[in-house]
Structure formats: C-alpha cells, structure tokens
Amino acid sequence: MKTKLLFSIFFISILGYAQDGTLDLDFGDGKGYVLTDYQNGDDGIEEFDIQDDGKFISVGYSYDIDNNQQILVFRNLPNGQLDLSFGTDGFTKLDFIQNGKANSIFDLSINKYDNKIYITGYLYDDNEEDNIDIKSEIFIIRLNNLGELDESFNENGILRTSFGFESAGPATSIVFHDDKKFTIPVAIGSINSQVMPALAKFNSDGSLDSSYGDNGISFFEVPNSDLAIIYSIILLDNGSILGTGMSYNFITETGDLLLFKMTSSGNLDLNFGSEGILLKDIDGLNTALDIDTGYNLAVQSDGKIIVAAQYDDEKLAIIRFLNNGTEDFTLIVLRYKSLWEAIMNARDY
Fold first, then answer.
1. CATH class of domain segment(s) 99-346
2. Cα–Cα distances in Å, from 241 out to 249, 265, 275, 295, 307?
3. Which percentage of the chain shows pLDDT scores above 90?
C-alpha cells in the first residue's frame, strides 16, 4: 500500500506524493496536484488536516480586489476534487476581522471525538505583527462537518478573548481530550510587562474549564524570562501535556529552547526537568541575538522526547530528551544550516 503525502503551497495548490517522492497520478485528475482559485483573488493555504475518511480540510487566506483579508476553509475529496457538500460549493469564507485588526492562523485540527473542525490563531494590530507592545487576542473557530459555524460553541462558532489581559496570543496548537474538552497554549501579559506562557483549557461549549489551573488557565513563570512563547503541545496518555517553544531575555537579547511538562490538573510536573521546566542553549554560545526555539515535538514508544528546533535564529536542530526532561546524550544534537541539509541528512537516521 502506498503512503501518500500532501503538501500545500501558495495560490491554493495541493500536491500529492507517493511514497517514493514522485507525484501520485491517482490524485488530481492524473496530474498529482490540484489548483483552486477562489473568486479570482490572491489565495494561500496555511494549515490542513486529514479526516478518517481520507477527505482533507485546508485553511488559509483569500484577498479580494480591494486587498481585504478573509479566512477561507475548504475540503477536498481523497482524489483531490473539491468536496461540494462542504460549505458553499466546497468553501467556507469567514470575515470577522474588524477595527484595524489582522490575523495569523496557526492551526487547523479535527477533533476525533466529535468530528468538529477547530481553527486557532490570534488577532493583532494591522501592520504591526512584530511589535510586542500591541494589544492582541486569540481566536478559536469551530465548524461542523458541513463547514458551517457551530453555534453550540460560544453561541456563534467564534471565540475571541485576551482572558482579561491587554495581550494574548498566539494559540499555536490544540489538543483534544476524550471528554470533548480541549487545551491550547497562549502567551499572556500586559504592555511593557513580562509575557508569561500558559495553557488554557476549555469546555466543549467554549467556556473555560474552571477545574483546571486557575479557573481554566495554568500560568507558569520561566526563570530569567521576559517573553516566553509555546509553539507546540502534545497530550500524553495520562493526561499530562508536553510543550516546547522559546524563552527570551530582553537584557541579554538571547533566547533558549523551552521544554516543559504540565500535569492533568494544570500544575508543572516537578519530576520533569528543573521543577517542570527545561531551558537549553543549543549551541552553547549564549551570545546576543542567539535565539533557540522548539517548534514541534513527538514522543517515542519508549517515552523519549524528540524536539525539532531552530538555533542561532536560522539553523536547524533535532534534539532528544529522556522522559524526565534531561538530555539524551546517546543522540548527538543534529545541527543543520538549512532545511535542505536537514532533509538530506535525515536519510541517515
């Protein structure tokens, strides 16, 4: 049986690859790819997920002739054809950006427990995405299997919140619990103050789960950190959550890879790392503008943790940790200068 891979690129283009890396000609009318143009505008895909039936859902942006930004969601059949039963002729357009806000989409995931579609990200002042001294808020969108906004979620299918703070974001990931609750990572703070990482756990209706952490939010302070952002979390079998990201110090202008473990009740696991937290300077230089970030992670069958990271602000690394949060020195840190070098060397491991 062939293992098929899907890749999405700008101008809503979706490519299907067979296991050996050649285009899969069973996908996209014998071409191995499909091109989709929505209303003659500029379009692009950010994230996608695959349903159990082989259909796949994508989310991205569409810009009209006046350059107005809209979130666009669509579904394709396993053969690449647009699924016309989804939304309106295969598309769901979401236009909820107001008051000078723009948005960044970070995740699209299908909840296997209820087949609902979740899209997460954050809103920020337009044209100031890189300015940390701006007000921002996260958003969570939930659609049903037909591509309609799910009105049982926060009454209209869309949740926007800063949790009572001046700034919240960026909602980069989401994990689902078997009771249909879900957890997202956020960074919360006030302008010109420390930005702390946190996990926020929600009930299925979009309300915070008051039994978790501090009324639904579990804050934690990272040592010597002014800004900490979580980029990826995974749910373990015992209900604990592992996460990775970046911790930054404004004075030294350095950023370390962040790895942490949270218990199912929303407390740091004190048996992991140093009181639940591990910070790593990947290349050991710790010089100004040396920023190390964990972007994704996975757990092996033996419990060891693999983190995909970037260091020195431009180079790639793969690091393995033991399940207690100490580094596994049986696997040398793999460092690469480019994505292409990482792909080529990955063949040897």
1. mainly beta
2. 25, 10, 15, 15, 14
3. 55
